[in-house]
Write a structure and sequence with these properties.
The chain is an alpha/beta fold. The protein has 10 helices and 7 strands. A 7-stranded mixed beta sheet has the order 1-2-3-4-5-6-7, sandwiched between helices. A hairpin with a 4-residue loop joins strand 5 (108-111) and strand 6.
């Protein structure tokens, strides 16, 4: 409790593996920590194997960052069901669980079930080990001082994607590593603040009856 009381944001799951104590650790944190928790990699796999009721009981603000396969485990939806309407699938899950979901893909979907943002930042070169860790680190850094909401999560996804684009431009999609993405985050943030970069897109469904 002493350690948890001294931080505003935690990043969990990277390099965890699937050890027997992971569920107990995650359960304890979700029940006692009142800050922001970014869950990735084996943290997501651990959560998928737990009783989803913990999401209704947690004191933390939970941000989940799955790719498609991880999301199917979390949501119990099939790949085909998700791909038929990924925005609706993401929104439904976030709304039902009270989480912020960042569903990684060609267009990354960031939603709390009420508000949804899309960003197509990212590039083929980010399909390399550690890219998800960079995203999680960016999110945890932002959540150390910014409000834990869907816009902050979306900004983290956007910055990581733009950093990856900068790394690919310099190193090429085959040679780049996750470190190249991380090294370009400051430039991406500077460009965004100076309004030189494309921004996220706010997504709003248009009711069929209004068309």
């Amino acid at each position: 409790d002493g350690l948890l009381g001294r931080v505003r944001a935690l990043a969990l799951g990277m390099g965890w593996g699937m050890g027997p104590d992971n569920a107990s650790i995650l359960d304890y944190i979700l029940r006692h920590f009142e800050g922001s928790v970014v869950l990735d990699a084996d943290g997501l796999n651990t959560l998928a194997a737990m009783d989803r009721g913990i999401l209704q009981e947690t004191k933390a603000k939970l941000i989940l960052t799955p790719h498609l396969k991880e999301f199917t485990r979390l949501s119990c939806l099939t790949k085909e069901e998700v791909l038929a309407d990924p925005v609706a699938a993401a929104e439904g899950f976030a709304r039902e669980t009270g989480t912020i979901l960042l569903l990684k893909g060609p267009a990354t979907i960031v939603t709390d079930g009420k508000e949804t943002w899309l960003t197509d930042a990212g590039c083929p070169g980010m399909a390399t080990a550690g890219s998800g860790d960079v995203l999680t680190g960016v999110l945890a850094g932002l959540l150390g001082w910014a409000k834990p909401d869907v816009k902050t999560a979306g900004l983290g996804g956007h910055l990581a994607g733009r950093g990856g684009g900068g790394g690919q431009a310099e190193m090429g999609d085959i040679a780049m590593t996750a470190g190249d993405t991380a090294s370009k985050i400051p430039q991406a943030l500077k460009a965004l603040r100076q309004k030189e970069e494309k921004k996220m897109i706010y997504y709003k469904r248009i009711p069929m009856e209004t068309l």
